[in-house]
Amino acid sequence: MNPTDKRASREQITAECIDRALHTLRQFLGLDVAFISEFDNENRVIRHLDVEGDQSLLSVGQAIPLDEGYCLDVVEGRLPELIPDTSLVSRAAAKQETESFPIGAHVSVPIPLKEGGIYGTLCCLGMKPVPGLGERDLQVMRAVAELIGFHLDILLAAHRKNDVRRLVIETAMAAGLPDIAYQPVFRLATGQIVGAEALSRFPIEPVRSPDKWFAEAANVGLESALSELAIRHALTRFTAGFEAGVVLGLNISPSLVCQVDLVHLFEGFPCGQILLEITEHEIVEDYEALAEALVPIRALGVRVAIDDMGSGYANIRHVLKMKPDTIKIDASLINDIDKDPMKEAWLAGIMEFARLSSCEVLAEGVETKEELAVLHRLGVHLGQGFLLGRPMPVDEVIEAAIASRPEAQASPVG
């Protein structure tokens, strides 16, 4: 379960606990309606509601002006918290809601918050008077309100923390981030640079790796927006790279393929020079939806790669379902492959699969000459890694790509 799911699950459980407490309280008091309202500057908003039967004049999310109803009067002391019979309290009897709702009995207490102040009110009401309501019932209401306040404190603290996290992501986006670095991709048989992978960079506080920035964006509902911005930056800043004939690799998760309008994003760019790398750090829930989302993208000429093959959820099933043009082997399987016969045997099998399915294999994380020698021996088509070339600005990629071409390396005739 990812962090977003965990947080949503905690909030859902908390909300269910509050709903259960509200239902139990209403039944205990023998009243018809119980609800929790949150106060804002001008309204009280119904956040939780429990009613006898299916009919109610109230609904969750409904905003009611503070000067309507009983709640504000109770909080400010103009009405008692406990009213077994509203007809016996002149201020209550005079209210329009008493007759129109109708309200025959009413119990309302503030919901206190840990750091002071009140969230709103916990209210229960009956359509008819309930003379048996007494001080004991009011004490139960106050105890339940305190318990609910404890749960609401947890939710509010999470929301406040979430607001700060969201602000950090939004500030980074407003500042023009992420920056993009490009790591060259080499055709191993010739040593020529044929592509470059776009890598996001966030040179601001808090200092953390790009994957953590995107994970945080997912936690606050900004993953799609941040990913779309990163792709847009990668494309627009690579114009000269396209002109130099270099292929651009763009990372995206399976879920975002179905969410982001990639066809629109790719408009105006040479789609035959775009390699869409489907990252495999999440379970693909619906292969049919993913395949359907890729159809118009592939129709543009965009090629598709499975990224990080051999790690996370990337496995042969993904290859069979997605029919990629390129398989990218995760760096963990390339590391020390010269010392590990099992890794070499696994990669040899992938190379045979690639031959039969007419796709290319790209090895990531090449860091030693010994690893590179194994890749050459197995006939791996493409490679990238610190041994070959570190992430760099686009102009350096273009310069290196031009210098790697056979004509640039040919000896001058003299």
What features would you describe in this structure?
This protein folds into two domains: 3-164, Beta-Lactamase; 175-409, TIM Barrel, CATH 3.20.20. Helices cover 44% and strands 21% of the residues. It has helices spanning 3-29, 71-75, 90-93, 96-100, 135-174, 210-219, 223-236, 239-243, 254-257, 262-266, 287-299, 316-322, 331-334, 341-357, 369-378, 394-403, 406-409, and strands at residues 33-39, 43-51, 63-65, 82-83, 105-112, 118-126, 179-187, 192-201, 247-252, 274-278, 303-309, 326-329, 360-363, 382-383. The strands form two sheets. An eight-stranded mixed β-barrel has the order 7-8-9-10-11-12-13-14, surrounded by four helices. The chain has a six-stranded antiparallel β-sheet with strand order 3-2-1-6-5-4. The model has no long low-confidence stretch (mean pLDDT 89).
Major sheet description: 8 strands, mixed, barrel
Strand order of the largest sheet: 7-8-9-10-11-12-13-14
Assembly type of the chains comes to: single chain
User: Total number of β-strand segments?
Assistant: 14
> So what's the CATH class of the largest domain?
Alpha Beta
**Helicity, in percent?**
40-55%
